[in-house]
Amino acid sequence: MRLAVLKERRPAETRVAATPETAKKFIGLGCTVAVEAGAGLASGIPDAEYAAAGAEIARDAAAALKGAGIVLKIRAPLAAGEGAVDELSLIPRGALLLGQLQADEAQANAYAKAGIEAGAMELLPRITRAQSMDILSSQANLAGYRAVVEAAAAYDRAFPMLMTAAGTISAANVFVMGAGVAGLQAIATGRRLGGRVSATDVRPAAKEEIKSLGAAFVGYESEESKQAQTAGGYAKQLSAEFYAEQAKVVAAHIAKQDIVVTTALVQGRKAPTLVTAEMVRSMKPGSVIVDIAADAGGNVALTKPGELVTTENGVKILGYHNWPGRIAGASSSLFARNLLTFLTTFWDKEAKAPKLPAEDEIVKGVLLTRGGSVVHPSFAPAKAA
Ligand code: NAD
């Protein structure tokens, strides 16, 4: 079984879907591993390290993909017209493609037509058994860490209270909005740096988690928010009335913050706007906002995706793309391990090949296409009654 690892070609993508460590493990499972030349460079991994792990270095995508039965990617392969290389057309029929594919119906149909078995790892069910394969968690965790580190670097004061002979510098007030995986790591990192940390969320379970990390909970709670969590663990879209009440509580708090980190997402929708232009105007000059949700439309009204904006009142808003990609060495290593765990869980040792049982809950959640058809319930055409 030949396993191919491609160089990522989409803008701002610095990660790679396999590391020398995982390549070696795949070789141990009986695979031959082909890594496209330069695939790991932006994550700090030279070709020589893959070669030392036993991988073949392929000169281009076509050479890596020739005869491949498994293809590992961070983001969806480029299709015709999307870039200089039509990666999709180079993937052999019957190959299993795994990555954060963010597929829609049209893409799912394109994979089916190409005869590719596509696994969209971001659709993994959030069950205990799947935790170690969960790319959303592993990447969000690092994004949360990185956001606070970048906030600290952009802030022209200090996070901890510093008592010096020349006088005292007060601790930074850090407010984290959205206490899921990224937010909880942001809280922990803000505390480690010595900030005075508070946080908000709409899911009731998050309140206890915020407090257990030593941060203060600030938020609006109502009958509606008691039901704010879906069975899958995500936040629900709530009513306009709820958001208006939440905004009132948040507005008073934000005016006193030095650092705001926003991480709030509602699955399948644009990220909710939690910080209005007026709230940004209420903040002190020199304050910093980091909007990790920028790629999902942003939690801050003034975020410009991909940019650092300095507002008229001197507030910096960091709305960069791809926060996990800003800490690419670590995020590649965890993403690669997530893919390795998925494949080893569904590995047929005799055949030395993946075996994805159609009835398995994880497989059902992830697999978009099989045998030339779209099989995922979210994308498959409704069966005739
Ligand atoms: P997410 O990235 O979808 O959203 C980030 C956070 O934003 C969530 O906590 C959400 O409640 C919050 N949010 C949404 N709207 C908001 C608003 N208006 N105001 C404030 N906050 C708002 O979520 P996530 O980080 O992927 O995880 C959510 C939950 O799932 C967590 O409890 C996490 O522990 C759980 N989880 C479970 C597993 C597992 O069991 N395998 C894996 C990963 C995550």
UniProtKB/TrEMBL annotation:
Its EC number is 7.1.1.1. SUPFAM superfamilies: Formate/glycerate dehydrogenase catalytic domain-like (SSF52283), NAD(P)-binding Rossmann-fold domains (SSF51735). InterPro entries: AlaDH/PNT_N, AlaDH/PNT_NAD(H)-bd, NAD(P)-bd_dom_sf. It catalyses: NAD(+) + NADPH + H(+)(in) = NADH + NADP(+) + H(+)(out). Keywords: NAD, NADP, Nucleotide-binding, Oxidoreductase, Translocase. It is an enzyme of class 7 (translocase). Residues 152-319 form the Alanine dehydrogenase/pyridine nucleotide transhydrogenase NAD(H)-binding domain. Residues 4-143 form the Alanine dehydrogenase/pyridine nucleotide transhydrogenase N-terminal domain. GO terms for molecular function: NADP binding; oxidoreductase activity; proton-translocating NAD(P)+ transhydrogenase activity. SMART domains: AlaDh_PNT_C (SM01002), AlaDh_PNT_N (SM01003). GO terms for biological process: NADPH regeneration. One of its GO terms (cellular component) is plasma membrane. Pfam families: AlaDh_PNT_C, AlaDh_PNT_N. The transhydrogenation between NADH and NADP is coupled to respiration and ATP hydrolysis and functions as a proton pump across the membrane. This is proton-translocating NAD(P)(+) transhydrogenase. The lineage of its organism: Bacteria, Pseudomonadati, Pseudomonadota, Alphaproteobacteria, Acetobacterales.
